[in-house]
Design goal:
The complex is a heterodimer of chains A (395) and B (266). Chain A has 395 residues and is of the alpha/beta class. Helix content of chain A is 42%, strand content 18%. Chain A has helices at residues 26-40, 43-57, 67-73, 91-104, 118-130, 140-145, 147-155, 170-183, 201-209, 211-224, 240-246, 275-278, 316-324, 334-348, 354-361, 386-392; strands at 12-13, 16-17, 63-65, 76-81, 109-114, 133-139, 159-163, 188-191, 231-235, 256-264, 280-284, 287-291, 327-333, 373-378. The chains are: A alpha/beta (395), B alpha/beta (266).
Chain lengths: 395, 266
């Protein structure tokens, strides 16, 4: 039986999704819900989106056969090189799409949230490109941890505002961005950076990121004569790179989808961000999903060495993929990820982002046949993480 | 037992009083963990009309800094929804005015919707305000349960809410409609602008079947009076939280604050 992974008209993937928003955001969300699909499927939009992805982002990104890594794992491993996108990660695929959408909605100002700063930089970049005013909310704690990305955003002309509420990390930056939107509902578009938030954001962001799996299919077809690999592996925080890498394979049931969460210092230590292992169904940031929380329903602050994976929820589509068993969910600890990051650096000459290193760490947990085709989504490059690599020090 | 006795206290209130209704919000478990019932009793003594008790939440996205902070303190104090129901167990022995619970949906979902409704009925809760529960989810999955336990679900409207939707809210509302005064989170502004007055007048002219209370940015006698000119009354949250955060006697602070708003000395 072919399983349909499709969002319904109320924004649900099976039991997860929806639009749990206060009335103050109703009109904004309704405007998006009614117009987004018509806008992004319009010919003018598609042409402009495709052209910017090609000329500005540098797409298609290569699908690279990693021969030494393949040899080590006794299989055929391909790397989808999202790290080669302009700004260094897949995040820009979505911000290009959303800035074009914002323009067509007549919005003059942009807000965004960011954790590690990659989505913030990708948003600041497209705002500079289009000449739109931009404010990015970032947890005060994350601003200190990710100073270079704060300065990149500022150089690009964006105002970075510290989220000082709650735990002062990504979840609170998201809260502050939503509060800002409540206070500025008419002239502002909120560019959410992952497949989270109220409907239609999760599906919209997934659509913009789905260029990743679309390219994988045509590149594999050229390379090996079939469009489907045996495994696709991606890391998951909120899950935008995974959603993009899985999108065109959702209904290809012979493709094993592997989502890798951050287990921090270990799932039993209480310092982890492995949502599907530690969470249960709940509602956060506008959608019903799987969520790390106390018995009383208070959201728990997750931990990971990677600032891009320490989000207490996952996108509703991933909650659905997990619940139905369509995707396999694994987790990797800080140490496993760091070791994998160094291994890829030594074997292939590519220093991955620490988020991405979690996906590579999963190679050890899977068994492959020699003739299997494995695609790892190399979602970002490690330049931003040099400090973390240096502090870890085991190389 | 006559029908009047089983009538929801919110409906009873609006049967007898249609002007200058004062609804005061405070966060359960703030400033101290066991202040909840004390504050509720004191609000009744101070002749407030409706008590709105906030269920603290880690991520209150519709709230500004003051209420966010009170939520944070309450959680640090150890407040939970379960404890709140324990604290309210005997509240009807000393408080007779309507009590509303305000909260975000996740803690309630974790508690269990049915268990929540039962507990509300048991302790004598008259209504709930759940800002992040969409209307259609309520209609499809919550309404029949709420009705069975005599709970009114209070909907919000804002300056951005369309006429059609206001009509829909009016149709589906019981108790009253919560008119958010401006595009903002709670506690944001201190004066009522001309734009807001236009919005108030617009709603007034729609002649809704439900009473309306204006909230967000109502903080003192001037803004309370202005709200009362345009609606059946007002809701005060952040300003009250500030008042009970002050040093000094909690009961005195409550009494003085209510008098400063209503200008009525009892």
């Amino acid at each position: 039986m072919i399983m349909k992974i499709k969002v319904d008209e109320r924004g649900y993937y099976g039991n997860y999704g929806g639009a749990y928003i206060p009335e103050m955001l109703y009109r904004n969300i309704e405007e998006l819900r009614e117009s987004w699909l018509g806008i992004i499927e319009g010919e003018g939009f598609r042409n402009e989106f495709d052209k910017l992805l090609k000329d500005y982002v540098g797409r298609p990104t290569p699908l690279y056969f990693a021969s030494r890594l393949s040899e080590k794992y006794g299989t055929r491993i391909y790397l989808k090189r999202e790290d080669l996108c302009h700004t260094g990660a897949h995040k820009v695929n979505n911000t290009i799409g959303q800035i074009l959408l914002a323009q067509r909605l007549g919005k003059k100002k942009i807000i965004a949230e960011t954790g590690a700063g990659q989505h913030g930089v990708a948003t600041a970049t497209v705002c500079a490109l289009m000449g739109l005013e931009c404010i990015v909310y970032m947890g005060e704690v994350d601003m200190a941890r990710q100073k270079p990305n704060v300065e990149r955003m500022r150089i690009l002309g964006t105002e970075v505002r510290a989220a000082k509420s709650g735990s002062r990390t990504l979840k609170d930056a998201t809260n502050e961005a939503m509060r800002h939107w409540i206070n500025h509902p008419t002239d502002t578009h909120y560019i959410i950076g992952s497949v989270v938030g109220p409907h239609p954001y999760p599906e919209m962001v997934a659509r913009f990121q789905s260029v990743i799996s679309s390219e994988i299919q045509s590149q594999l077809e050229d390379e090996i004569g079939r469009k489907n690999p045996d495994h696709v592996i991606a890391c998951v925080g909120g899950g935008s790179n995974a959603a993009g890498a899985f999108y065109h394979f959702y209904e290809e049931n012979n493709v094993n989808l592997v989502a890798v969460e951050a287990a921090g210092k270990g799932n039993e230590t209480g310092q982890s961000a492995a949502t599907t292992t530690l969470g249960k169904p709940g509602i956060l940031h506008g959608s019903k999903t799987i969520l790390m929380q106390t018995d009383d329903g208070q959201v728990v602050e997750p931990y990971s060495i990677s600032a891009g994976l320490d989000y207490p929820g996952i996108g509703p589509v991933h909650a659905h993929l997990f619940e139905t068993g369509r995707a396999q969910f694994l987790s990797a600890t800080d140490d496993e990820a760091m070791r994998a990051g160094v291994e890829i650096s030594r074997l292939e000459g590519i220093i991955p982002a620490i988020e991405t290193a979690h996906a590579f760490a999963a190679l050890d947990q899977l068994t492959f046949e020699p003739n299997h085709v494995v695609v790892v989504n190399l979602s970002g490059r490690g330049d931003k993480d040099l400090d973390t690599y240096i502090k870890w020090g085991q190389y | 037992m006559g029908a009047v006795l089983t009538m929801n206290r919110i409906d009873q209130l609006f049967e007898t009083k249609k002007e200058r209704i004062l609804n005061v919000y405070f966060t359960a478990g703030f400033p101290e963990l066991y202040d909840t019932a004390v504050i509720a009793k004191q609000l009744e003594i101070a002749r407030v009309d409706i008590i709105e008790i906030g269920i603290p939440y880690s991520d209150p996205i519709a709230d500004g800094p003051t209420i966010q902070q009170s939520n944070g303190v309450a959680l640090e104090n150890g407040m939970t929804l379960k404890l709140l129901f324990d604290q309210l167990k005997d509240i009807r022995e000393s408080v007779s005015i309507p009590i509303i619970l305000m909260g975000y949906i996740n803690p309630i979902v974790q508690f269990g919707i049915e268990a929540f409704c039962k507990k509300c009925e048991e302790v004598g809760i008259d209504g709930v305000i759940l800002p992040d529960l969409p209307m259609f989810e309520y209609q499809d999955h919550y309404k029949s349960l709420f009705d069975r336990h005599g709970l009114h679900n209070i909907f919000l409207i804002t300056p951005q809410t369309s006429v059609e939707r206001i009509r829909e809210v009016d149709k589906n509302s019981r108790g009253f409609i919560y008119m958010v005064s401006s595009a903002s989170t709670t506690g944001a502004k201190s004066e009522i602008s001309a734009d807001q007055e236009t919005y108030f007048t617009r709603i007034k002219s729609m002649q809704l079947k439900n009473p309306t209370l204006i909230g967000f940015g109502i903080s003192n006698s001037e803004t309370f009076d202005k709200a009362c000119e345009n609606a059946n009354g007002a809701i005060i949250g952040s300003a009250f939280i500030k008042a009970i955060s002050k040093k000094g006697d909690l009961k005195e602070n409550i009494k003085n604050f209510v008098v400063s708003v209503t200008q009525e000395v009892h």
